[in-house]
Amino acid sequence: MLQYFDPKQQEYDKDFGTPASVSENLVTLEIDGVSITVPEGTSVMRAAALADINIPKLCASDNLEAFGSCRICAVEIEGRRGTPASCTTPAETGMKVTTQNKRLGKLRRNIMELYISDHPLDCLTCPANGNCELQDVAGEVGLREVRYGFSGDNHLQAEKDHSNPYFSFDPSKCIVCSRCVRACSEVQGTFALTIDGRGFDSKVSPGQSETFLDSECVSCGACVQACPTSTLMEKSVIQAGQPEHSIVTTCAYCGVGCQFKAEMKGSEVIRMMPYKGGQANHGHSCVKGRFAFGYATHEDRITKPMIRDSIDQPWQEVSWDEALNFAATKLRGIQEKYGRDSIGGITSSRCTNEETYLVQKLIRAAFGNNNTDTCARVCHSPTGYGLKTTLGESAGTQTFDSVMHADAIMVIGANPTDAHPVFGSLLKKRLRQGAKLIVADPRRIDLVKTPHVETHHHLSLRPGSNVAFVNAMAHVIISEGLEDKAFIAERCETEAFLAWRSFISEERHSPENTESITGIPAAELRSAARIYATAKNAAIYYGLGVTEHSQGSSMVMGIANLALATGNIGREGVGVNPLRGQNNVQGSCDMGSFPHELPGYQHVSDDIVRARFESAWGVKLDNEPGLRIPNMFDAALDGTYKGMYCQGEDIAQSDPNTNHVHAAMRSLECLVVQDIFLNETAKFAHVFLPGSSFLEKDGTFTNAERRINRVRKVMPPLAGKQDWEVTQALSNALGYPMNYNHPSEIMDEIAQLTPTFTNVSYQRLEQLGSIQWPCNEAAPEGTPIMHLQSFPIGKGHFAITEYVATEERSTRKYPLLLTTGRTLSQYNVGAQTRRTDNQVWHDDDLLELHPQDAEDRGIKDGDWVGITSRAGETVMLAKISDRMQPGVVYTTFHHPHSGANVVTTDNSDWATNCPEYKVTAVQAVKVTEPSDWQQRYHEFHQQQMIHLNTARQEAGSGKPKVTGE
Ligand code: SF4
Ligand code: SF4
Ligand code: SF4
Ligand code: FES
């Protein structure tokens, strides 16, 4: 089996002391007799490190601005008095620097003596032993004695803080270098830490002298990573000791696609260390990627294949062959009885590109139909439709780094600090540099009130009014003559533009006329439109608050219209950027998961395209699009859809109108679920095929920037097979042969059949680290920024976006509008994060409501609230919150028992059927007990756990247990 390691890992492991300068002017200096040329603005310390001359340092790190507090990095510079700190001294032409001599050695030893006289001498039992910068520097400077003794005033008894579930704070080891404080401010942008007091009394303090858990800290771990001692230390390292090897891989949570070094002891992950070479995260992370990996070895993992004839029966553990043959026989039997189109499957945005590709291939080639869909159906399918129509490609236009060139940033229906936290930190950095911010969101997200960031506009629009809002923005731009006429003339279709201009100029789209729909004061909207249109570079970032609407596709097109009208496409700092929720939403769409598109968005009805796939796959393909997920549910209830293969997706929890979905699941004769846990969908399954976590397999994920990142196996699959091997084995059992030896061979086939992937291979990924597609003859190293000179459709296409009010509107019976979203510590349906210590931050879904709405209903914080819509009823705890606007309530959907999707309806986007999660008319009243649905859910859950435990008891393969959901 191939085992790849990033060849550049060593280079990225080096800390150059201060950040790189981007100046194009060069300076040449001499350090210890070595001549070196560096960009102007480079510190002497970094220049030396680039020449492999290492100056000792304690308070410096190359991800933080130089601070100059420890003085250990002092050097001599010819012609200058004293011993300046090399980290804060910029390199200059002609400088002659000495980094080592007797005087400097003595100075450094003196400094170290002071540090060590107030430091516990327990190196041998310290968790940082072997990986401690203080220890290293003491060794480097040759410290041999501490003349001051250890009996003076010290901090050795300072109280420890173990409140954070993942790291400890032991102030007795703190050297007050402030790297943690600066990491929290500069890298993470949370400003949770300060140095309190002065001189000897200085100490690191979270919040207002609170514990870490009670402070503003979001547990990103940047401070832990920055700490040169064991003051801030991962509990996993304290318990297990220092890791002994590492493998670079990619986070399996959100669409930012952070890369990590999985730091290991044998096959046990000790720590996930954000990888500096990760081109999406540059060494930063959030709480999920860095700390929430324990689910991968959680006792709830199912590692044995299981079968049963009916969901009312106990499971039976069987061999892989038995399970696969059982599934194949059932699925073929259904096809014989009900016809070829009576089965289908669902791919997952949590799985790798290679796995997703294989699932859709199995459906098309072995099932013989196009009944394949993906969970992107319920999140970003409107992005695919809207961007393809207007810009010609179904993907975001930029790199994440591009935001550092944006002068105005509009965030629409997205919550980057919770859902895309590492990008959120980068965005905040740009805002602190002075970029203007416009947030369009019904709820006051954290970005609106971030330290040292002044929001220029929070447009608190009413749920369901997106298209009226975007049309009003465009109306201002056109009616005030703010459009980029040259860009439009050169890059856009004239006829479509003229039609759109005449449409958007109509007075009914003016902010004054739409104010009653959007709730946004006209003057404020005008001001926001002017900021967006007149900025040198203006960028739009959007999320599911745009797509998950009955007009999701119209809104995406409306956003693209704005970017085209203002010429904000085709260079750094601009663009249209969908923030993808799950790790591989982009990839699962690229890989041909949709029922109408083969990999690379090639339509199944195109004879030439199909012929290429037929020749490569050796099978005749159906030329008719298959069923979308909602159609699958409807067909199941109609009795025409009877079998399904569902890999890594939990439709029973994530899809709207739970009652409808569960009824559809119950009507299937064979549901095959491949997952790592017995998730909500698996409770309705007849075959359970154990999946592998991201740590157990090779493959690739494609993030929101179209960046293809390698996923590398760091431990053997607990169930013995990687997910692609399971799909391959199922295909073989069905009689359609697949014989790949490694996911790299699957990628080679993808590259052969997908024009935007032509030059992608594992070898190329090893060379380049990651690749942003398109990557082909025209762009052999990939395409960081799209649409530089032209669009794949030639010219940009303005689309008419008529506002049509959703059918979901508040009524006397349902006077509130419910909108849903995510929270930082949990991920999607929560199957992974609920099995980690992230539970301390969010152990239940709450209903947030405005104080006025709460008072009108006599609801107090923590009360049980019954939420009723025309689809169903559930009960949650109330959280009174002034983030909400009156009339709008909000919740998350991370816990199955909260039943958020019991109330969401099957209203959906007109073009793609993406559900309208963001607008549900509801009533909320104080109640005293769970809803009927919750009681039924609880009984069903208990029954299914008994069925699982029976299988385990009979097989003797694990202690019986009933787990909570
Ligand atoms: S974990 Fe992150 S947010 Fe918390 S104090 Fe450290 S740097 Fe700040
Ligand atoms: S906790 Fe660590 S990083 Fe922070 S000031 Fe103390 S030694 Fe420096
Ligand atoms: S920002 Fe997203 S990709 Fe990065 S560590 Fe967090 S969850 Fe993982
Ligand atoms: S490393 Fe330069 S002053 Fe601390």
What is the mean predicted local confidence, pLDDT? 93
User: Cα-atom Rg, whole angstroms?
Assistant: 29 Å
Number of distinct helices: 31
Ends distance: 37 Å
Supply the helix-strand structural class: alpha/beta
Q: What ranges have pLDDT less than 50 throughout 5 or more consecutive residues? A: 1-6
- Helix proportion: 25-40%
Q: Which ligands are bound?
A: iron/sulfur cluster, FE2/S2 (inorganic) cluster
Strand order of the largest sheet: 13-12-25-24-23-14-15
Please summarize what this structure is:
With 965 residues, the protein is of the alpha/beta class. The chain is built from 31 helices and 34 strands.
Descriptive key words:
965 residues, alpha/beta, 6-stranded mixed β-barrel, disordered N terminus, binds iron/sulfur cluster, binds FE2/S2 (inorganic) cluster
Question: What's the helix and strand layout?
Answer:
Elements: H1 9-13, E1 26-31, E2 34-39, H2 44-50, E3 76-77, E4 96-98, H3 102-117, H4 133-141, E5 167-169, H5 179-188, E6 193-196, E7 203-206, H6 222-226, E8 232-234, H7 235-240, E9 245-250, E10 259-265, E11 268-274, H8 287-291, E12 306-307, E13 316-317, H9 320-338, E14 343-347, H10 353-367, E15 372-374, H11 381-390, E16 408-412, H12 416-419, H13 421-432, E17 436-440, E18 457-459, H14 466-479, H15 485-491, H16 494-505, H17 511-518, H18 522-534, E19 538-542, H19 544-547, H20 552-565, E20 576-578, H21 585-590, E21 597-598, E22 602-603, H22 607-617, H23 629-638, E23 643-647, H24 651-654, H25 658-666, E24 670-675, E25 687-690, E26 699-702, E27 707-711, H26 723-733, H27 743-753, H28 762-768, E28 770-772, E29 816-821, E30 846-849, H29 851-856, E31 864-868, E32 873-880, E33 888-892, H30 900-903, E34 920-926, H31 932-955
Parallel strand pairs: 1-4, 14-15, 14-23, 16-17, 16-19, 17-18, 19-20, 23-24, 24-25, 29-33, 30-32
Antiparallel strand pairs: 1-2, 3-4, 5-8, 6-7, 9-10, 10-11, 12-13, 12-25, 21-22, 26-27, 27-28, 29-34, 30-33, 31-32, 31-34
Helix pairs in contact: 9-26, 10-26, 10-27, 11-20, 14-17, 14-18, 14-20, 17-18, 23-25
Bound molecules: iron/sulfur cluster (3 copies) and FE2/S2 (inorganic) cluster.
